[in-house]
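REQUEST FORM: STRUCTURE PREDICTION
Request ID: SP-0412
Submitted by: Lab K.M.
Chain count: 1
Length (residues): 288
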Amino acid sequence: MYVDLHVHSTASDGTDTPSALAAKAAEAGLQAIALTDHDTVAGIPAFIHACQGWGVEALAGVEISALYRDGHGYEVGVHILGYFPGGVDPRMEESMGELMSARDERNKLMVQKLNQLGIPLCLDEVAGKAGGDVVGRVHMAQVLVEGGYVSTMDEAFRRYLGPRGKAYAPKERLTPEEAIQLISRHGGLAVLAHPGTLPIRGQQYLESFSRRLVQSGLGGIESDYPYLSNAQRQHFRALARRLGVVATGGSDYHGANRPEIRLGRGDGSLELPYAMVEAIRERWKQQV
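STATUS: Completed
RESULT:
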């Protein structure tokens, strides 16, 4: 039986509720699953309760969006996963609230930009797509598609919502080191998410970057991820061994927002062993 340690729900930008994810994990035959919503742990209680009902082991998690600046004007978006084998500290959601406030301000600014471009979106309409959960760009994209302003979600991001889009607005983000420290401070284990997607040139530079994060408390690297070759996965597993941290993996499942990605299997190539969960727990015990 396999596991999936990187999954999103309607608490952020996924389309399945936390409870539905538990049911789908059981249907997929997964032994364990981690909920890692963007910048929030609001979905964790319902997720854990549902997993207990379906006989699937639940691991509480989060994925924090951070920004790395190298001091020469070069910026890279970096995601840090946090795993909480001992449960989520209630104060963690308070800390996440500060990040969500920054997201709310960004949403307002992007809606304003769309209005200035002649697209009469309102924030209430966008929030309606989120169903009471965290509002984000994916919900804006859904409104743009349904309103006929674009044909597809991809076009919405390319023309308006992505980093080069006309309505894009950056949000204030923590540094990777700050994200790691936040997770550690609240009793979690921090893991560098999908390093294979980082626009960092050269293996040597990526290793030195990862080593700096380990010095700040990073406890793992997500080595197994969709669309990576076996050679790439082996490379990131070897990097984790050299740095003395755990190797993890996940599908980055978002439901209908990324229909090509399957829960537990990713692009069809993932078969993540339960040993990854055990490794996270052992590393976490050493840390706490």
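NOTES: Residues 159 and 165 are 5 Å apart (CA to CA).
Reviewed by: T.R.
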